[in-house]
């Protein structure tokens, strides 16, 4: 059995930057959850996404199924792999529709072709105040002890299972990039039940409204390069501080990427970005038993 397989750099217009995702078209076949997890572990990128089509038609069809797997587990929402999945439909299959719908564990998600970008229509996951006293050791090993005194506030998005740590405004981009979490101790100090990832964010400068980094060792991803789902938390948070519905964020990982967000009145957020397709091939598998 051969399945089309693509590698896409998301939230960038340059190769070898942004966040990588593998996209596998499975047509109208049925792959077991174990088989998809084994494939994701073999590919070993932050996310491998599987798109299925009931009609096995990637050109005319408007609605598709979509699931996302890290090397260790399935996740309920992934922005960059959704952007990458849409890119394969629009730019490789040359899908005839300007909007496609993905049926996912987070409900229906919509991707719209817009000039050189793709816009994703995602749910907002607003963070709320959170009693974090029991998590002091996790925060210490994430930020390093010297930085703990520079925290402005800590919130939790229960819907996204993400902890948001907002640093004080004098915490610079250089300071953010200098953080070196101890991922082994992060895993030992928290079991991943309350949250699966930690966003560290600070006020932006110049064209950027905010900067961020995202750490998710509980999902098998020590640091994610550019995280669309984290921006469903960041967008409503920073909207309250900037007073702006449309903002530009920069995720400051080693590869890095820009994420455009627009907070909507209907409780959803548009997340926009560029993509670069860097690999086209086939996955060769034995037939499932």
TrEMBL record:
> What GO CC annotations are associated with the protein?
cytoplasm
What Gene Ontology molecular function terms does this protein carry?
A: isomerase activity
Source organism superkingdom: Eukaryota
Matching entries from SUPFAM superfamilies are given as: Diaminopimelate epimerase-like (SSF54506)
The active site of this protein is located at 47
According to the record, the signal peptide region is none
Keyword terms, alphabetized: Isomerase
- NCBIfam families xrefs: PhzF_family
Q: Which family does it belong to?
A: Belongs to the PhzF family.
Q: What is this protein called?
A: Phenazine biosynthesis-like domain-containing protein 1
